[in-house]
Amino acid sequence: MAYSIDFRQKALDHYEQHGNISQTARTFRITNRTLYQWIALKKETGSLQHRTKGGNSERIDKEELRRYVAEHPDAYQYEIAQHLGCTTSNVGYLLKTLKITRKKRQPSTKNKTSKK
Q1: Is the pLDDT of residue 26 over 80?
Q2: How far apart are CA 38 and CA 30, in angstroms?
Q3: 3-29 in b/e burial notation, b at 16+ Cβ within 10 A?
């Protein structure tokens, strides 16, 4: 559960006045760990703003992926990922969603050998 910034500030002000983490946590009905995290956040960033998570900054162009795979059928997933600037797991996921199968290994013989 995300707490509001003013609630966080009130809890930190109470902690600074009393100097006791456990008492402050009980007063505001939060865990000690939460209070420690807010103190660390205040030291690191200087504010109590929520940290934003990373994420997929750019979408991979599906047509570019199709074109690259058509031009380089022997390319490994890590090579495709380097070309597109993404991770190998992203490439694998996209290939699966686009229903593009990778090169399969050919059987060693076309005809089955008969056993005597």
Answers
A1: yes
A2: 11
A3: eeeeebeebbebbeeeeeeeebbeebe
Could you give the C-alpha distances from 100 to 28, 87, 106, in angstroms and in order? Answer: 54, 17, 18
Per-residue pLDDT tens digits for 46-102: 998 887 776 655 677 888 989 999 999 888 889 999 998 888 888 888 999 888 887
Contact 32, 42 (CB under 8 A): no
Which pLDDT value is given to residue 50?
Answer: 80
Helix (H, G, I), strand (E, B), or coil: what is residue 76?
A: coil
Which residue blocks in 19-59 are alpha helix, DSSP H?
21-28, 32-45
Using an 8 Å Cβ cutoff, are 61 and 70 in contact? Answer: no
49 phi/psi in degrees, rounded to 5: -60, 150
Instruction: Please state, in angstroms and rounded to a whole number, the distance separating the CA atoms of residues 16 and 12.
Output: 6
> Cα separation of 51 and 63, whole Å?
34
Domain boundaries, the chain: 5-45, 62-97
